[in-house]
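Exercise 7. Given the encoded structure of a 277-residue chain, write a plausible sequence.
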């Protein structure tokens, strides 16, 4: 947050035959195992899985160089699915489930690409949407609902207001107040701050333990060990600003990073393919 501011008729027959409820209800201690119809079915499901996997790889080419590619293509999840498909004990039933899941993900990815193509137009013509559309080539969405989606700022009684957030469950959506409720300077600063959070979440999922490379920077004591201060520093570096105030109002978390931290931001952003000044 900024201060100030893709898974996945038997009872009727019993009545006709005059069977009792007890005769038609499986014993709770007995599970009916799915029927494995053999090697032919297994091979069919594996072939479908591989077909869908190839389509996904082809679709992912449109994400090359995009900083949010890890959040869209879900490489960790696909690697887990690949590992399950190579299990020597894989059954036809399990292979069918895996192939179905991959088919669903392929369809979702196709929809994500279509949606991204639509978003690139900056329909609102606003500063914030223009920045967000360009940052993720349309794969990052913006919703102007921060007042309800982001919660109340804990320092609201001191005049602070939450003007944006990126929520954990949907890291590809930036929630903001409408630009009309902020000056252009603040709209720009807070939007870029929130984009830094999107890139942090993308950095997290690049690693098996969801511990992004930026975490090492925080562990070193940079950005006061804070994701929020780091996001401020990203915005300051991106915009080549040396203040968190426009002379009337303040934004961010009160710390203006120096040259060493700004270089760390540039290096980190380069590794993420994230835009930075």
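Solution.
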């Amino acid at each position: 947050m900024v201060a100030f501011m893709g898974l996945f008729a038997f009872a009727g027959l019993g009545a006709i035959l005059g069977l009792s409820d007890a005769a038609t209800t499986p014993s709770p201690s007995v599970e009916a195992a799915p029927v494995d119809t053999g090697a032919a079915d297994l091979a069919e499901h594996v072939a479908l899985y591989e077909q869908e996997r190839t389509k996904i790889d082809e679709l992912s080419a449109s994400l090359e160089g995009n900083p949010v590619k890890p959040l869209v293509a879900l490489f960790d999840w696909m690697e887990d699915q690949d590992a399950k498909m190579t299990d020597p004990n894989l059954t036809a039933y399990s292979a069918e489930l895996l192939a179905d899941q991959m088919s669903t993900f392929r369809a979702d990815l196709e929809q994500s690409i279509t949606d991204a193509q639509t978003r690139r137009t900056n329909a609102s013509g606003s500063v914030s949407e223009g920045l967000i559309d360009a940052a993720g080539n349309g794969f990052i969405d913006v919703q102007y609902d921060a007042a309800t989606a982001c919660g109340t700022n804990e320092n609201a009684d001191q005049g602070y207001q939450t003007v944006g957030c990126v929520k954990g469950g949907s890291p590809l959506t930036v929630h903001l107040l409408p630009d009309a409720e902020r000056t252009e300077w603040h709209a720009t600063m807070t939007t870029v701050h929130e984009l830094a959070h999107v890139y942090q979440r993308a950095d997290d999922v690049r690693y098996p333990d969801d511990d992004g490379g930026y975490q090492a920077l925080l562990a070193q004591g940079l950005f006061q060990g804070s994701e929020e201060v780091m996001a401020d520093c990203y915005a300051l570096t991106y915009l080549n600003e040396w203040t968190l105030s426009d002379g009337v109002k303040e934004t961010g978390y009160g710390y203006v990073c120096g040259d060493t931290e700004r270089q760390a931001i540039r290096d980190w952003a380069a590794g993420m393919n994230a835009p930075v000044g």
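Remark. The CA atoms of residues 66 and 136 lie 6 Å apart. Students should compare their own answers with the one above.
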